[in-house]
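Quick sanity check, Phosphatase PAP2 family protein:
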Amino acid sequence: METLVAARSVDHRLTRHMAAWDSAWARRLLPPVEEAAEHTKLWWAAAAVMAAGGGLPGRRAAVTGIAAMAVAELVSNGVVKKLVERRRPPEEWIPHDDVEDRPDSSSFPSGHTAAAVAFTAAVAPTLPWAGAACAVAAALVAVERVHSGAHYPSDVAAGAAIGLSVAALTRSAPRLVVRRPG
């Protein structure tokens, strides 16, 4: 029980610290990142670029990334958020105006982060250059979710874990389906 209390305390301190982070680049960069990630627009655009310019590997990566993103959103937003009801960080912890735009759904886990990490991890083995670019964007999405007061760091970590798990499953699913019994 003490470990849980200590973890919650660290989570709360990190949330307050990250939300209070006031740098010029954060004010300039994070709001557009949040807008691009809303409704997975960023990942659909990345998939379109990969499919258009990456040949057959690009099309494969785009399809795998979109599939992983969709499953991660289903798991995080459609299942886990329904099972774990967690309030968003208190508004008084967030010293900027972004706090007014927070969703009403459960804070746990971060669906934006789950989608971002799933897409990135599914794409990276096929197109490492695209995976590297998407990893930067996914990290910015994760930071933005805490900075805006929408999530605690543990929500983002859980979203990332869901995203990684779904990406691994999505990448291995075709081999599991095609495999013939022995």
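Posting the structure with no commentary besides this: The mean pLDDT is 87.
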